TrEMBL record, chains A, B:
It is an enzyme of class 2 (transferase). It comes from Salvia divinorum. It comes from the Eukaryota. Its EC number is 2.6.1.83. Its cofactor is pyridoxal 5'-phosphate. This is LL-diaminopimelate aminotransferase. InterPro entries: Aminotransferase_I/II_large (IPR004839), DapL/ALD1 (IPR019942), PyrdxlP-dep_Trfase (IPR015424), PyrdxlP-dep_Trfase_major (IPR015421), PyrdxlP-dep_Trfase_small (IPR015422).
Length: 462, 462
């Protein structure tokens, strides 16, 4: 694990400064090299320490949407701060309950399937080259029958992917730059950042800490982490994650019925992220397609990452019902198929062999054990913060615990916890302005680390 | 292999009709369901055979860029025609020299590394979760030293990916919709199609078979398959593939020096696709970075697909020099890093273990053997068409043979060959209007199949 984290550290050195506002960068450059011009472009940059460096610039304008981004992607920034802390405290035993990275081994029934698939690739009969961009048909069928039995989702509605994050970006490419979007606030940062990159938003409004043209649906303890839809502006796309990352809260059947109705009234498309569905303990829906009528207004993104520890193996899927149509009647799935064929070449065949093992009876049992282990961790963390008198949310239906520090800055609390306990968490405000005053504690960790982290929390906040 | 191809067949059923102009689709729909309107949207579609089908439509407008695409992605369409042919001729022994899919087993030194990595993922000490989005540092370093030694490309300039096609699309997202682009004509269709999807182009001009706003750099036998740059309009981005898919031709050092100079004069960025570099037999450059000054104007996309048979395993990389800057001085690599962190989660760790084995001394030797085998196939195909009196191009530095059928339609020749010899090729016009009158024959195949295909070619064209 430490080798991986060292990799993160080294490889992110280049991205560190992008966490600063990009506009700051300009002031670091000597002004005399900022002159544009094709023929005079090779200019010795004598004012910089490295006198050898030339300051040639192409005439290609930087993508203005990337310039809108205010910071580096949240999780590399967390990793950077973690590594800076380690550098400053080389003897500290740092525990990561931050980026939501799985820690437990992948069940052997799954790894042995991947190992076998790897091996047969060196045989004439077992070799396979390009697979279908949409995924191997057996896996598509198995995902449909495992997660969507009786819900009207069939194997050809399943597009196998290299993970939910990649699919979110492909969905943004699918919808293009002219759509409007809504997100839960707080929410997984890939929704907003990919929307900015695709040009769906205006500039970042520093006063409210929101991008213009995105509808932020505030989710707070007061509304049970389900937005007050009567105050939500109509948008084309509604990103909705349940069980939610980061609040850990799962929407009820009644709430999701309201959401589907809201989408239908507005002619919107819901992009439903169900990556934590197997963590649901009560009767909250595991899929948006449990809600009648949802197939006409929703598609669903999911992943094996948090079920089977596939965060490094990379495998997920998107389900797009045949009933989902654009305003001109064109099926959304047909355009997504074109995106997948043009911009992707299918998930790794080895990972797909692992996916097939995941949804075998033995694999499902093994995944439930993995999920069960992390749920025990969650209960330990919830109990700890409860015993310390904090208001604690989430945890029941998701591997995330959302701890309230009223009136305090999330980043301050993050730093305080890191400094004083050597435990990495995630500041709530990294998920949107609605996360301010909260810290997300992830339940992904070895048991002894979770117990030790909780001991340290008790020491700090006793 | 046949299982894979059946998968392609089944899974592509949904995409088949997208090969027709999308405009045709509208006329297939009863006009009474094309009425927009939020509240009246659930309408029984009584005129269709399936009376149960509802015709609800969201109010989300279809991405107009996707509507510009004239046809399905080329290679799924080839697979569709292949499968239709098999259905019509169930007893025919069909041979695929079409989509460029590798057929030979992956060397064992590589698969055993992937198998081992799979296995250790089920152990506490060997498990790893999220890796760096940019790839494992050891692999980045090994790619840099294997392919770019002495060329000024270092490990942090390498972004490991799930393949060149995915990276081409991520590069389009990087550049955004306001750039102009040039492509070789003919060229690998992902460049043009992804440009259309990102909104960089105008409509398809049926008279010239080109998208408006793309500069098509014609590559013909007359100009040695290197464009006459004096007639090429300035664009922001220049896609350039060498050794070329589909013409099989590699640009010389002198030609690439001219290209780099042209880019510099125009302030353009070259996206250089070197996915076939290991097939170079003569002293043509293997990397654009062999050309002095290229680091200021070019980035390079590459892949293990055609070296190690990784078309199904999925692993590639993009090298972006630190010296490559936008017009405002911002480093291109920094924005690409942000794209990779936001829209991607790294290549599968198992595939990366395979990549590391690829660039070990043993792995490099094994890859050269695989490449050598396909090069022998290429020579057999070249000899066959030469002996039949055809003008044949490519083959020397690439696994593709570009056969001229002057005055004939590529699709007609494709169909003639498929009908009469049961051999699948690729019609040259599928790569752009400049490919009309040509057929691409791929050298990826088992030896006995290549020999048998050549016997059939001799029978047909004797």
């Amino acid at each position: 694990m430490s080798a991986i984290h060292q990799n993160v550290s080294t490889s992110l050195s280049a991205s560190t400064s992008t966490f600063l506002s990009h506009n700051n960068l300009k002031s670091l450059r000597p002004s005399h090299v900022s002159v544009a011009g094709r023929m005079s472009a090779v200019v010795k940059c004598v004012a910089t320490p490295s006198a050898e460096k030339t300051a040639y610039k192409t005439d290609v304008a930087r993508n203005e949407n990337l310039a809108k981004l205010q910071a580096g992607y949240l999780f590399p920034e967390i990793a950077r701060r973690r590594n800076a802390h380690i550098a400053k405290n080389p003897d500290a035993k740092v525990i990561s309950l931050g980026i939501g990275d799985t820690t437990e081994p992948i069940p052997e029934v799954i790894t042995s399937a991947m190992s076998k698939r790897s091996e047969v690739l060196s045989t004439v009969s077992g070799y396979s080259g390009y697979g279908a961009e949409q995924g191997e048909q057996k896996l598509r069928a198995a995902i449909a029958s495992t997660y969507y039995a009786g819900l009207g989702i069939e194997e050809n509605d399943i597009f196998v992917s290299d993970g939910a994050k990649s699919d979110i970006s492909r969905l943004q490419v699918l919808f293009g730059s002219n759509v409007t979007m809504a997100v839960q606030d707080p929410s997984y940062p890939a929704y907003v950042d990919s929307s900015v990159i695709l040009g769906q938003t205006g500039l970042f409004q520093t006063d409210v800490e929101k991008y213009a043209n995105i509808e932020y649906m505030r989710c707070t303890p007061e509304n049970g982490f389900f937005p007050d839809l009567s105050t939500v502006r109509r948008t084309d796309i509604i990103f909705f994650c349940s069980p939610n990352n980061p609040t850990g809260s799962a929407a009820s059947r009644e709430q999701l019925t309201k959401l589907v109705q809201f989408a239908k009234e507005n002619g919107s498309i819901i992009v439903y992220d169900s990556a934590y569905a197997m963590y649901v303990s009560d009767d909250s829906p595991r899929s948006i397609f449990e809600i009648p009528g949802a197939r006409e207004v929703a598609l669903e993104v999911s992943s094996f990452s948090k079920y089977a520890g596939f965060t490094g193996v990379r495998l997920g899927w998107t389900a797009i019902p045949k009933e989902l149509h654009y305003s001109d009647g064109f099926p959304v799935a047909k355009d997504f198929n074109r995106i997948v064929c043009t911009c992707f070449n299918g998930a790794s065949n080895i990972a797909q062999a692992g996916g097939l093992a995941c949804v075998s009876p033995e694999g499902i049992k093994a995944m439930h054990e993995v999920v069960g282990f992390y749920k025990e961790n969650t209960a330990i963390i919830v109990d700890t913060f409860n015993s310390l008198g904090f208001k604690v949310y989430g945890g029941k239906n998701a591997p995330y615990v959302w701890v309230h520090f009223p009136g305090r800055s999330s980043w301050d609390v993050f730093s305080e916890i890191l400094e004083k306990t050597h435990v990495v968490t995630t500041p709530g405000s990294g998920f949107g302005p609605g996360g301010e005053g909260f810290v997300r504690v992830s339940a992904f960790g070895h048991r002894e680390n979770v117990l030790e982290a909780c001991r340290r929390f008790k020491e700090l906040y006793k």
